Amino acid sequence: MSAVDLTQFHKTFFEESREGLDAMEAALLALDSGATDHELVHTIFRAAHSIKGGAATFGFADVAAFTHVAESLLEEVRSERRAVDAGLIEVLLCSVDCMRAMLERSSQGQPVADAESEALRVELVQLVSGEVAAPVVAAASMVAPVSGWNIAFTALPHLLQTGNDPLRLFRELQQLGRLEVVRAFITDSAPAQLAELDPSQCYLGWELRLHGAVARAEIDAVFDWLDGDCELAIAPLAEVAVAGPVAQAAGESLPVATAAPRPIRETAAASGEGSSIRVGIDKVDALINMMGELVITQSMLSDIGEKFELSQLGRLRDGLVQLERTTRELQESVMRIRMLPIGSVFNRFPRLVHDLERKLDKRVKLELHGEHTELDKTVLEKIGDPLVHLVRNAIDHGLESPAQRKAAGKSETGTLKLNAYHEGGNIVVQISDDGAGLNHAAIVAKAQQRGLIAAGQELSDAEVAELIFQPGFSTAAQATDLSGRGVGMDVVRRNVRDLGGSVGVRSVSGKGSTFTITLPLTLAIIDGLVTAVGSERYIVPLTSIVESLRLRADAVRRIAGGGEVFHFRDEYLPIMRLHRAFACNDAVTDIEHGIVVVIEEDGRRVGLLVDDLLGQQQAVVKSLEAHYQRVQGISGATILSDGSVALIVDVGGVVRLGQRSKAA
After folding, report:
1. Residues 470 and 486 sit within 8 Å (Cβ to Cβ)
2. Looking at the 3D structure of the chain, how many domains does it have?
3. pLDDT tens digit string along 38-93?
4. Which is the most buried residue in 201, 352, 385, 576, by most CB within 10 A?
5. Share of the chain above pLDDT 70, in %
6. Domain check: are 26 and 118 in the same one?
7. CATH of the domain at 37
8. For residues 123 and 217, what is the distance between their CA atoms, to the nearest angstrom?
9. Cα 142 to Cα 313: distance, rounded to the nearest angstrom
10. In a shared domain, residues 334 and 347
11. Residues 578 and 499 placed together within one structural domain of the fold
12. 3-class DSSP state of 504
């Protein structure tokens, strides 16, 4: 029989274990001190049990040993031998963090256990053994300390079929102390004739001695998942162990394992969160259907090509129309596969809020809305860090302490809301709080101190709010691990802009602030307007276009520094000549002979002067930086239908260039 390579299942194990830890964390955060919610406790226990069984099956002994002890503590809660309190919840939350780090190290092939994980495991063992063993110690105070254990272990015939491996159990016992095999024997259930032996059955038993100061709870944890799969008896070395059936802890079957697992060799990239996507079967079915339609269309066009005559032009035209329709539907099906709910990002915030509440001594009610709103996987992976920073800022700077809120006539518990929804071709994410709002006086004073504005300069609320996005800007009097180091909002804005999005803030003194992030649904394909500038083609994203118009020469005014502005809807907008910005030859230079495309980003507008508008087109975005280098004002490139390359305008970069030329 050939050995089974278990490394092929490692990736799935790590993904499912991370999901299990997320479920554990969410349930722990939902637990209330002083009350035992059996459904939540069962959810936590089952997640830990699954991780433990999988880790043991695939040879991650350190992870399995740690989770054994955590599960033993959970079993006491589940059986109501231990009450739920704030201290227990914190210890279990720390255990979740520790297991998450251990799994990450396992996935990267690094040493799994470290001083921190071992210290926490010992703390869990002490919690378990201290609660259970106290009455025994009192009753047997005259008995000498236990220096080891006799273990009588007899496998039931079906043990191997449930995925359990006696050798794995022995390896785990060896990690607890020095293991001695006193005797190995064949059970009475074994057939008399060798030819009648079933290789899938186990007919063996062992008498073992484990030497060392090992807690009974640790030994129980090793055998904990063998539910009805063995006969087991454990006694101190001073006593005589008698093999026989004993009560088993609740457990479940594991996948069949017929060979010792090999060391993991997966890379960090392969095992990271972004390495795979779980796709609903409906999306896969739609993709398969579209592929079928494409095959039919391709077959029809091939038939026309082999026997082409002018009389078949009608069929050819119909086939091309069908090809276009099918290709577009196929594209939409593929893009839907990349779309994931933003809830996977939102789910990290209950724990973050819980920790910040304790650290800052504040009370926060977190409300999540629109968790099922979907956006592209690439955008989803990169938006997490900016959102974390905004949430931390909202709790640290925005929400007041309970005493301050009470003095202001507010509830002592502040409210933090995260909301996501679709708007046009974008997704909008809002982070709002009901705190004190932006401190305009402090922001203005800091800006004057740094020379960002002149003393006595009058600023609107929007202009004051814009100051917090300046690099290195902070009003905190003292730097802490949460704020005050001047690296924050400018980084948030830059990261969001790198995704083709924008971020803004609206604040009302005494009532709170709302940060709004607008992002494209996908970075892979955009709807754009193809423009001509000399012999070049540039694509402007449709979502950024306000209007296009022709101007007379006398509608343009020149300002100091050589800049140009024109009047548009009660304001003057700067004009950016793309042929100057990108050094294009043979372009239109007279305003009246060209077309001005008004674009907007972060509430700021600029008019782009181009030669002509060539039509709307979906553009498959290709990274210019990956194949050439970063170019200011250009976000990427695409290939047009005629095979030529068109550059995609970075609206944010162009608007900022235009605003600087206006200021000059």
Report:
1. no
2. 5
3. 888 888 888 888 888 888 878 888 888 888 888 888 888 888 888 888 888 888 98
4. 576
5. 84
6. yes
7. 1.20.120.160
8. 13
9. 103
10. no
11. no
12. strand
3-class DSSP string for 394-457: HHHHHCCCHHHHHHCCCCCEEEEEEEEEEECCEEEEEEEECCCCCCHHHHHHHHHHCCCCCCCC
**Within this chain, do residues 553 and 644 fall inside the same structural domain, yes or no?**
yes
- The secondary element (H helix, E strand) that includes residue 660 is helix 651-663
Q: In what order do the strands lie in the sheet with 204-211?
A: 178-186, 204-211, 148-155, 230-236
Rounded Cα gap, residues 654 and 602, in angstroms: 12
394 and 451 fall within a common domain: yes
In a domain, 335, yes or no: yes
pLDDT at 137 (0 to 100): 31
User: pLDDT digit string (tens) for 311-356?
Assistant: 778 888 888 888 888 888 887 787 778 788 888 888 888 988 988 8
Q: CA 544, CA 542: separation in Å to the nearest integer?
A: 5
Strand 502-508 to strand 413-423: parallel, antiparallel, or no bridges (unpaired)? unpaired
pLDDT tens, position by position, 163-209: 778 888 888 888 888 888 888 888 877 887 777 788 888 888 899 98
Cα distance between residue 374 and residue 286, in whole Å: 18
- Does residue 414 contact residue 365 with C-beta atoms inside 8 Å? yes
Question: Hey, what amino acid is at 591?
Answer: I
- 472, HSE (Cβ side, Cα atoms, 13 Å): 5
Domain membership of residue 401 (yes or no) is yes
Contact yes or no for 564/556 (Cβ under 8 A): yes
Q: How many other CB atoms sit within 10 Å of the CB of residue 164?
A: 27
The reported pLDDT for the residue numbered 601 is 74
Q: Which of 234, 254, 274 is the last residue of a domain?
A: 254
Pairing of strands 426-433, 502-508: unpaired
Same domain, 516 and 530: no
**Would you put residue 538 in left (φ > 0), alpha (ψ -120 to 50) or beta?**
beta
Rounded CA separation 307/382 (Å): 52
| Residue 270: inside a domain | no
CA distance 326 to 331: 8
Q: Tokens 């990002």 label which residue?
A: 345
> Are residues 355 and 331 part of one domain?
no
Range of the domain at 169: 145-254
Find out whether 11 and 275 touch, Cβ atoms under 8 Å: yes
For residue 522 the two structure tokens come to 């996908």
